[in-house]
Structures are given as C-alpha cells and as structure tokens.
Sequence to fold (581 residues):
Amino acid sequence: MAHITALYRKSVSLLLLFLLAGMVPLMALIQQDAEALSLKEEDRRKFDYFFYQALNAKTQGKYDEAMDLLQYCHTLDSTNANVLVELGTFYNVLQDKDKALTYFRKAVRYDASNYYYNMMLAGLSKELGLKQEVVDIYSALAEEHPGKPELQFELANAYADNGELQKAIDALNKLEKSTGISEIITLNKYRLYSLMNKKEKAFDEIQQIIDKNPADPRYLILMGDLYLEDNQPVKALDYYEKAQLIDQQYPALILSMVNYYEKTNNKTAAQTELQKAITSSSLDVETKLQLLTRYLGILQQSQQDLKQANLLFETLFVQYPSNSQLNMIYGNALVLQGDKAGAMKQFEIYAKENPTDPAGYDQMIRLALAEEDLKKIQEITTEALKHLPQEPQFYFYLGAAHYQQGNYEKALHVFEEGLKNAIISNPLLESDFHGQIGDLNYFLGNKEAAFLSYEKSLKLNPQNLSVLNNYSYYLSLEKKDLDKAEQMSGITIKAEPMNPTFLDTYGWVLYEQGSYFMAKIYIEKAIEYGKENPSAEVFEHYGDVLYQTGDKEKALEYWKKAKELGNASSKLDKKIEAGTL
Fold:
C-alpha cells in the first residue's frame, strides 16, 4: 500500500508540473507511468530467467554459453553482485586476472557485507601482490565477523606480507587469546620474531608450548632443531637429550640427531645413528627408507664405499619382503656402485610390482641407453606402453630404437601412435615428435609429408635446431626453397657455431646457391670441428666444393677419403673414376 501511495504522490506531483506547463493530459501521464513500471518488472523477470540459464549451462560444462548469458545479464543489471562474481570467476580461470579483479571489486562494492565475495577478492588481490588491499579486506572482515578466528590468522599473514610484522604478531596474540596456545600460532610468532631479529622472544614462544606439553618430545625436538638452525648446537643438544629421556626411539629425534652429528662434522656418529635406526624394530618402513637414503648420501659425501650399505638393504628385504620401494632405492645404489646388471634386476622387480608407475621403466631405459642395447629398449618400452599408453617418452624411445635399426616404417608408426595416444603437455616434446616423423617420411620417400611435418614441428618450437638443420638440408638436396633453407640453417650455426653437422649443412646450402667460396669456408670448419668423428658425407661435400673452386686434384683426394670412410653417396665412385662432377 505504501508503495502505491508513494507512486500516487509521485504521479500527482508530476501531473501538477505538467498541467502548470500546459502539457500532458492526466490519462496520458498515468498510462506512461504504468508502462515504465511494467518494463522494469519485465526486465527483472528476464534477468532472473537468463541468470539461472547461465548457472545451468555452467553446471553442464557449457562454458561459452554460460559466459554469453552472464554478459547479457550484466547488460540488464550491471550492479548485480552475483553476476559480477560469476564473470570474475570466469575471467580468473581464463587467466585474465586484471579483468577478474575489476569484477570482484565491483561485486564487493555492491554487496559489501558478503563474506564470500570479500574472501574471493582477498585471494585474488593476494595473488596479484596487492598487499595493502589484502590487509584492508581482512581487517574489515575480522571486525565484522569476530566469531571467525581464521580471519585473524589471515590478517596476521596479510600484515606479515605487507612488512607490518608487529601488527602481524598483535593479530596472532589476539587469536591466541580466543583459541589458546597452538603449534601453528606459536611457529608463526617464532618466525615473525626471528625476522625482527628478536631471537629471545622467538625462542620464548617455543618454550611456552613446551611448558604446556612437557611430556611431548615433539616440541623439545623442535626447539633443538631451531637452535641447530640458528648455529647454536650446544643448546640444540640439550633439548635433544631432554627428548631422549621421554622417548629414545622417537623417529624425528633420530633424524634430528643425525642432523646434529652432520652439523658438528661427526659423520661417524651420524652413520652409527643411522645404522642403529635402520636395523631397529621400533621405526616404520617409511622412516627407515628416509634414513637409508640419508645414509647413502653421507657415504657419498665422505667418498666411502657404498657397498657397506648393501648389508642394510639385505636386513630390510628380510623385514619388508614386499616393499618394492626398497628395490628402487637399492637399484639406484647399485648404479652408483657400477653394478648395472644388479640394478637392472632391482628396477625390473619394481616395474613388475608397480606397472603403472613410469619410474621403474625410466630407470631401466637409462641403463639400456648407457649400454646402447636397442633390443632391451624395445622390450622395456613395449611393456611400458601396455600399462602406460599416455606416457610420451616410451613412444619416443621405442620409435628411436626402431629408427636406429633402420626399421623406418615401424618407427614412423610408433611416433604417429605417440601423437595420437600420448598426453604431450610440452610443446617442445611435441615438436620433436613431428621432427622425427618428418625425418622418417623423408627416408621413406614421402617428401611432401616430411616437409609438412617439419612445418608443424617448427610452429611448436621455432628454435628446434635438429629440425631446422634437417629441413634445410633436405630442401637443398631437392634444390628447393634455397633461400628459406639458408635462413633456417643460419639459425643453427648461430646457436652452435662449432657443430660440424650444422656447419656442413649451411655450407651445402650455399653450394647449391652457387656460393662456392663461402661454402668452402663453412665446410672446412665442419671438417676442423669434426676431426674426432670424420664424416664421409662432409668429405664428399668438400671434394665437390674444391672441384667447383678449381682445385680438382684436392677434390679427388677428398672423394677418395670419403670412400675410405664408407657410407658416401651412390655417385661417389663415378666422381672418382672420372675425376669430375
């Protein structure tokens, strides 16, 4: 009724103004007001309909549709906080953080008391490094919601991030009064006092929690660790000894004592402590594995024989016969000892027990690569792909093994399967896949397909040097797009000016362009930097260049050298026999 009365008063006052001005008749004015009211109601209904449609689309994963609907809702009502937050969330996911921030700020402006909107704005502001804004938001929220202790904690963190350390401590003290002494508050206060260089106050905070929990060794060990970190080993030992009186076999205490012995350069005592702990029955297997890894590290650092750890492994295998993590650690230890066959056996056991973990196969491949055992690589990767068809590295190694053995069609199939089935999140790796497919297609005579693959590869990684080199070289062999070939090859020799393969390619592209003297310079460099591993192809190229530059006798000499090395071109015998190109 009040709303109608107000509207009536508004209509009457407007009517008087219009009548005084000699304008609109009464009925026309009443009709105009009614139409305006009806339009607002229609817009509101329209807004509600499209907003719920947007939420529906979002729930169904139709994000483009949801975004369009939300944008339309925003045109209907640009002050609606629900829409503003939804749009902000979309832009946040799309990594358009500035736009998301604008929408979140507007949402809070139009619905300032909404707790969740403020929290979202605070989170994004923190991510964007807007430290004072974060302080302001949490400060207001903490005042408005005194029953939410977590806000005091967030406010303390915000103050600390903003460099207001004392205010951060004050916020934590306020929180501590309402919740009591707790580990997380105490440790934060310790950290803040340490940053303020108030060490005594920092240590007093830890002592406070020790006094509250005198029978708990954790806090004594923590105090010892903090003193050790502060280069006060005598005080650290005092607290460790107090912890020993409570529980001598406490796992964290053993680790801390090892740290103490290492810090005080008493490696023998550290080893003894570790050996005792690993063979004891009081610790769980995870802690023992952690200690065992630490023990191996100490042996390595002090350059002792790692074989002395093998007895500990045997003890643990008896205690935990089905723990395959032991096999992985032992395999790595055997690799360091030079026992590759023993290591391979351990990794095989691990892979058999954990067929969906790539780590075991990866370690086996590493060993097989060191031995250049292509058949073993095929065997490992084939087995791995039965269980892990989404892992790209196994396609790559299997394809490369077939490639090295000249099985080009098999290799091509493997790389193509890899592109189809594997999850390749790294564009550099995907570029390498296309590069290998390009090489294989070229060897199989599919030249246009090869060049297409090279283009795809370079789109993903324009600095893929092996692809740039091969693509430019094969273009030169086809006497095609030589300017493009020179440009690509030029990138490789700038990146690696002493790489003989890249130098030879660049020289050969220049040769095909008719720049014989420049070609001679680069191919001479290729020969110079490739002394350790001379190439028949490079020698033959050099012979061709020498012939074109007028040194026919020396050309023949290099053609003959190329023949001695083997794997030269089919035209080489004719060149030698005729002494001419």
